[in-house]
Design goal:
The chain has 15 helices and nine strands. By secondary structure, the chain is of the alpha+beta class. It has two domains: 95 residues, Phosphorylase Kinase, domain 1, CATH 3.30.200.20; 300 residues, Aminoglycoside phosphotransferase (APH), C-terminal lobe (Aminoglycoside 3'-phosphotransferase, Chain: A, domain 2).
């Protein structure tokens, strides 16, 4: 929704749908976030109904919005706590559901024992929906699993296909990871199950789980993919001990888990995040929250490479603290910061839009201070691996991707180290003061599995 006219027209269509199907809209507000979403209060029969409306992502997800609503409905009807669905608004491609009271970030629970209790309730719910007959979801519109031998890649292969169809620029890290994933799929029997594909997203209230949510990456696949998610999600919000959650899942299912498969899934799952964002990084829209996607892109690549280092038993380097420098742009960027800070804002949406501008400038300031030295180091490192010094960063990315696409497994460790060093630089540049919420996602190591 790039301009006010489109937003107004969208909300007019949404209001009309709600009033035809539910009741009189007394409040409708867009959420200040990176995707289309609204909260609404609706009057019907003298009472207020609280609604949440979820529109489509700018980044193409695995599951269309309508099917996501269908999945939540199946879960609800089968004893899994999930938001009740009021229907699908075809005019704006959005699902309308009940708005539950509570919070979605476990890290906001100060009492660690209470936090662990809510996480445990989610694990119990996960065990239950993994045990549901997949036919329930196939009947709702989900695609059946393909080749049983490729079930571990049920999510990865579909996201990869979209990535390849839209690929615009060289991305050696993505290419390295996706080729490694295909060469190293674990063997062994898998029982197909409905999986969220991005687990540990929930609503809780007063220390109790109220609902599982966000099925936009769901599919029929390997249940272990859901379990691996905790290690990545813990870096965007503190969710608890991955090792304890893994042991609890084993206890509830009475099955010993394949830890090597879990490690593989973390590599593949983290890579899926960067593959998913690839197109919008190369081709953002007018309303794209570009810095947010930039953080998730490079943070996900860092996590995937560190997960792979765990598999390969490689000790990775840390990034030495670089010395900042100044340039002719330094003062101009400082004045631009001041200009943005002085812009008046009245609404949450205006405040959000100003914050996006501030984040981009802060990133450019760090790039101004450290980028030239980082680029020189990368050119030297790429030249040492491919045997020819690149002329510039674009040439380096192109030469390295070509090398990665033809390299055998014997190059896994040196390529891993090179690519990880570069992702550490990207994450360092993105670690701006305005980004405290995702600082751990950029810098901290993944949680231990055992």
């Amino acid at each position: 929704m790039p301009d006010a006219l489109v937003v107004a027209d969208t909300e007019r269509l949404l209001t009309a749908w709600i009033e035809r199907n539910i009741g009189k809209v007394v409040r409708l507000e867009a959420e200040p976030r990176w995707r289309a979403a609204w909260t609404a209060d609706v009057e019907r029969d003298g009472r207020i109904i609280r609604l949440y409306v979820k529109g489509p992502r700018e980044v193409q997800a695995l599951v269309p919005v309508k099917l996501e609503g269908a999945a939540l409905d199946v879960l609800n009807r089968n004893g899994i706590p999930a938001p009740a669905q009021y229907g699908y608004c075809e005019e704006i491609d959005a699902i309308v559901m009940e708005r539950l009271e509570g919070d979605s970030r476990l890290e906001n629970i100060q009492d660690i024992a209470v936090r662990d209790k809510v996480a445990d309730e989610y694990v119990q719910a996960m065990v239950k929906f993994h045990a549901l007959d997949p036919k329930l979801f196939l009947d709702a519109g989900f695609a059946p699993p393909g080749d049983p031998a490729q079930l571990r890649l049920a999510q990865f292969s579909r996201i990869e296909a979209t990535y390849l169809s839209k690929k615009r620029i060289p991305e050696p890290a993505n290419e390295f990871l996706r080729l490694w994933v295909h060469r190293n799929v674990p063997t062994g029997e898998i029982r197909p199950a409905f999986i969220t594909g991005d687990a540990f997203q929930m609503i809780y209230h007063k220390g109790a789980l109220k609902a599982v949510m966000d099925m936009e990456m769901a599919c029929i696949g390997d249940p272990l993919l859901d379990l691996c998610c905790i290690r990545m999600r813990d870096l965007s919000e503190k969710t608890g001990s991955a090792a304890a959650i893994t042991r609890r899942y084993e206890e509830l299912t009475a099955k010993k888990l394949d830890l090597n498969a879990l490690r593989f899934h973390l590599v593949a799952f983290s890579a899926v995040s960067s593959l998913l964002i690839s197109d919008i990084i190369a081709n953002p829209g007018d309303a794209t929250d570009y810095f947010e996607h930039h953080v998730y892109y490079h943070g996900s690549l860092r996590i995937a490479l560190e997960a792979l280092a765990e598999v390969l038993e490689v000790t990775l380097d840390t990034l030495p603290e670089p010395e900042p420098v100044s340039s002719p742009q330094t003062i101009h960027l400082k004045m631009l910061v001041l200009a943005v800070e002085q812009m008046p804002v009245k609404t949450d949406m205006e405040r959000y839009q100003r914050s996006k501008a501030a984040a981009e400038i802060a990133y450019l300031q760090r790039r101004d201070s450290y980028g030239a030295a980082f680029d020189r180091a990368y050119l030297d490192e790429v030249g040492a691996v491919v045997g020819q010094l690149p002329t510039d960063m674009a040439d380096a990315e192109a030469k390295l991707e070509t090398f990665v696409q033809s390299a055998g497994p014997e190059y896994d460790k040196p390529l891993l180290r090179l690519l990880h060093d570069q992702e550490l630089r990207h994450c360092f540049l993105a670690d701006i003061p305005q980004n405290v919420r995702l600082q751990r996602f950029l810098r901290e190591p993944i949680a231990l599995l055992t």
